[in-house]
Amino acid sequence: MIKSFVLKLTVSCMAIIAQFTLQGQPCRIHSHNDYQRNIPFYRAYSQQVNSMEADVYIDPSSETGLLVAHDPQELSNAYDIEELYLKPIAFIFAQNDGRPWKNEDRSFMLMVDLKTAFHPTIDRLIAKLKKYPEVFDPSVNPYAVQIVITTGNPPAPADFNTFPAFILFDGLIKVDYTEDQLKRVAMISEPFSAYSKWKADGLPFPESDQKVIRKLVEKAHQQGKPIRFWAAPDNPTAWKALQDLGVDIINTDNPEACTLYFKSQGE
User: Is the dihedral of CA 263, 191, 254, 47 positive or negative?
Assistant: First the structure.
């Protein structure tokens, strides 16, 4: 049943990809909770986003399963991450001579949010990824998809090097990483609501809040890392304001609108 679903999804979406894929992108865009789209993976992929996100839970009925869902009550109807993301991505790589996009010298990130205990959740994920080294291991393929782990209970930075080199981690602004630890940090991610209550709903963005955001951006850049704010307002007013403040990655639940907005600006 799952294989049939993936095959139908692949065939139906290739036409969408061919029609809407953009040649280059002016701003890094992150498809937040990508699996909640009516067509997971392919809608964001067709926009050539820089990253996309999937939340995973241990499948209690399987020794290897990782189900993609937002809440535990959704698990009974959830699909495995291998079916929703890993196999479709591997299919795309096979079609494009080992690259996400044919004749493109760039790749993207797949951020995986571990919603169940770090171990064994990450162990199951690593086992699945190792089945596709030409797709997810940059030591095998320089165009490999970067895997970024995010979780409410992350490992200590001192333990980063105990995981395979193809595993990167989501960073926090308050952590003082060593130079070696920073090599395993893909980006800095922070909750926008911790620094501003601005809703981008017609009221001005307080100057004091902008100053705080700008300082966080500067700190991330001093570490050589891009920064993303999750749970930020998600509309053109907010996208432009965040970009003007130097935020590198725009977090959005609407990758098509966000991508087309920046394209229309000629950025």
Answer: positive
Calculate the CA dihedral of residues 200, 203, 208, 213 and round it to 10 degrees.
10
Separation between Cα atoms, residue 172 and residue 189, nearest integer Å? 6
Q: Which CATH class is domain 2-264?
A: alpha beta
Distance CA 30, CA 51 (A): 5
Indicate the domain borders of the chain. 2-264
Contact 53, 33 (CB under 8 A): yes
Find where tokens 């596709």 sit. 132
Counted residue by residue, the chain has a size of 267
111-240-168 Cα angle (round to 5): 20
pLDDT tens for the chain, 267 residues: list them.
444 444 444 444 443 333 333 333 457 999 999 999 999 999 999 999 999 999 999 999 999 999 999 999 999 999 999 999 999 999 999 999 999 999 899 999 999 999 999 999 999 999 999 999 999 999 999 999 999 999 988 999 999 999 999 999 999 999 999 999 999 999 999 999 999 999 999 999 999 999 999 999 999 999 999 999 999 999 999 999 999 999 999 999 999 999 999 988 875
User: What is the model's pTM?
Assistant: 0.89
The Cα 231–Cα 267 span in angstroms is 24
> What does the block give as tokens for 19?
């029609």
- What is the amino acid identity at position 150? T
